[in-house]
Amino acid sequence: MTNINDLIENGVSKCGGTNKWEGISGFKHQIDVSLKNNQHVLLIECKYWKNRIRAEVILSVLKRLEDIRNGPEANGRECRIALVVSKGFQKGVKKLGEFYKKEISFFRVDKDEMIEIISHTHFLIVVPLSIKMQVQPTIITQGQ
Description:
Elements: H1 4-10, E1 12-15, E2 20-22, E3 28-30, E4 33-36, E5 40-47, H2 55-69, E6 78-85, H3 93-99, E7 104-109, E8 114-119, E9 121-122, E10 125-126, E11 132-134
Parallel strand pairs: 5-6, 6-7
Antiparallel strand pairs: 1-4, 2-3, 4-5, 7-8, 8-11, 9-10
């Protein structure tokens, strides 16, 4: 299990179009936001779409995680992915979230900029929550 606060405070963060992670396939995946330290990697994908996220998108994101997890940049670290969306999820996604709970977390940001935790674990510990909080946009830099 990771200490998420340590990952945020002492990890290295990257974001934007230059944040590329090479998978075992050799393909370089662009990741919206990433946090890493010596033991863990957290990849964050943001989907600000007009429609709810389909199950096929989740499966694609999980396949990207698998490619990155086994690639040279993961370097044996524990990898997870968080999906942050604007419109929620279609049927079937909950079932995928329950099955892949050690690999993926789901969050939704509503029109009032509140974050709803849909499905979330801290690497191996399941934390069943349903809370909302006000979004405070922050850019995390190394050592901050």
